[in-house]
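Q: We require from you a single protein entry containing the residue sequence and its fold in token form, and nothing else.
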Amino acid sequence: ILKDINTPKILHFAPEPVFYKLFKPFEYLTADLDLKDVDLHLDIQNIDYKSNSFDLILCNHVLEHVLDDKKALKELYRLLKPSGMTIITVPGDWSRDKTIEYEFPDSNGHYRDYGLNIIDLLETIFNTIEYIDLYKYNSIYKHPIGLTLKHDLAFLCQKK
């Protein structure tokens, strides 16, 4: 997606510092509700930012920590420009059809453990959904990055 846009505008929730250098050439904003060293302090369930603002939104291992993931996803969609994409990763058991919801956050602060029905949820909000198994990238790096076969999926969610 970044190759197709002259000056992409990127929003990164709960940003991982390993990506900072990669995105430095672009208009890149970091966001989190609790982290201090970010550009924007935003609640992903109620984002105080103009609609249709971003070409790419990164949301890695965030949705399991929010009470209302559907509301958060709708907010991400709202922020995307037409043809924009949100890349989402969440922990889950991809051999299980259903997401397990918790009444209270578990010891990791998770409100849910996703199953394959996350795809159904994503399809109710975004126009196109693709997913890739990140495990295939595990051997690219000099050091193992802890990915496991059929466990680490990335969901590429696009707005038309």
Remarks:
- Residues 135 and 148 are 6 Å apart (CA to CA).
- The longest strand covers residues 80-89.
- The chain has a mean pLDDT of 90.
- Residues 69-79 form the longest helix (11 residues).
